[in-house]
Structure of EAL domain-containing protein:
Amino acid sequence: AKAAGGNRFALADAEADARAITRHGLTTALPTALDRGEFFIEYQPLVHLGDGSVHGAEALVRWCHPQHGVLGPDRFIPLAEHTGLIVPLGRWVLEESVRQANFWQERHTDGGPLRINVNLSPTQLHHPSLVAETVDVLERSGLEPGALCLEVTESALIGADDDLLKPLRQLAEMGVDIALDDFGTGYSNLANLRRLPVSVLKLDRSFTQGMQHHPADPVDLKIVEGIVSLAHSLDLAVTVEGVETGAQAEQLRQIGCDTAQGWYYARPGAPDRIHSLLLADAV
Ligand code: C2E
Ligand code: CA
Ligand code: CA
Ligand code: CA
């Protein structure tokens, strides 16, 4: 038993070492990855729950690493946050996805404005040139500010003072939508929402998961109903993440959620996928 225990520790150590080495390797490779064009963006549609039409798309970044293959954001966004590379990386994501959205927009003028959702990390939020850069990206692309939605996590805004909220207020005044991402996972006081310059609540996937069972847990349903009615009374739109089944979609539609996102509609994918969905909507 003693030997086995020892081995177990040795194995755990080896795994921890391997993770540390990979993390170190990824961290040192990050700055050049941007210059080498190793990042790319997948887009996941956001649909209207009422009629299933495409409302917009969320930009989700991936890293095509020369040795490790395609890495999801959970593997490198925290590292990029830590090293500060998130600022140039986030700038690239914004620029690229706004350019892409403008391309879709120009080809689907009859379908109403298509929204593009871009994630903002806390470091970007604190960066002094956030507003100027966003204005610059929008102006150069030709996309109207109202087509852009910046997603900020609830945890990034907890305890936010006026200094932190000021750039978001400025963006909101220009017509950019601000969404509160992963809503329900933090500790934010619902009454506090009124203070924040947000116009969209993105209900975290954990709520949708609670509705997987059929029939859904009545307490979960009541909680979501409560959030939706409060959000609507504050003039906020509600988007739900992680919709994986038709039954979930139907339940969320009945509760009054506005838009949804999840594998039931489409996994994140190449920009062409959004293009064909828009073409399908147009007929
Ligand atoms: P998020 O903003 O909450 O994005 C939604 C995540 O849920 C995405 O994971 C998406 O692929 C996944 N998802 C979508 N539909 C479903 C579903 O039906 N079921 C399940 N189980 N999952 C679903 P992904 O792409 O791995 O992104 C993870 C996180 O990385 C994002 O969470 C976001 O916080 C962050 N992220 C992604 N791109 C960027 C970026 O450009 N900048 C920053 N700062 N963060 C990013
Ligand atoms: Ca998001
Ligand atoms: Ca989210
Ligand atoms: Ca999430």
The mean pLDDT is 89. Residues 182, 204-205 surround calcium ion (ligand 4) (CB under 6 Å).
